[in-house]
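Help: read this over?
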Amino acid sequence: MLRKITSVVAGLGMAALVLAFGGFGTAADDKKDDKTPTIKEIMAKGHKGTEAYMGKVKAAVKAEKWDDAQKYAKAMSVFGAALGKNKPKKGDADSWKTLSEKYAGDTKALFDATEKKDAKAANDALGTIGESCKACHTPHK
């Protein structure tokens, strides 16, 4: 009986540690959301690889999984709004302002299209965002 109680107490203790230090939805995760994501974070999470939001939106639109498309497009829109709050490594401030505002508008258009369940508009927005890389990277990366 004592062994069983010790086992339960140890298990509860481990669960408390997991929750306190990096477990499921900690206060540290909530605080992380308060800070502006960096340009690097925005580009990596939004555009880089198969797990990026752009790819997920595209796949969800193609499969007509609108809830998923809206979720990932919303994340892109939040990133779009945050991009201009950063300072790029190089380039003119006016150029950065113009290009980051365009990116914000394009990501919002993507989100709006997914809310309307408009596949053509979503694909057009995805194309516009995808084609804008060089215009921004050349002067600012």
The chain has two domains: 1-35, 36-140. The CA atoms of residues 83 and 100 lie 6 Å apart.
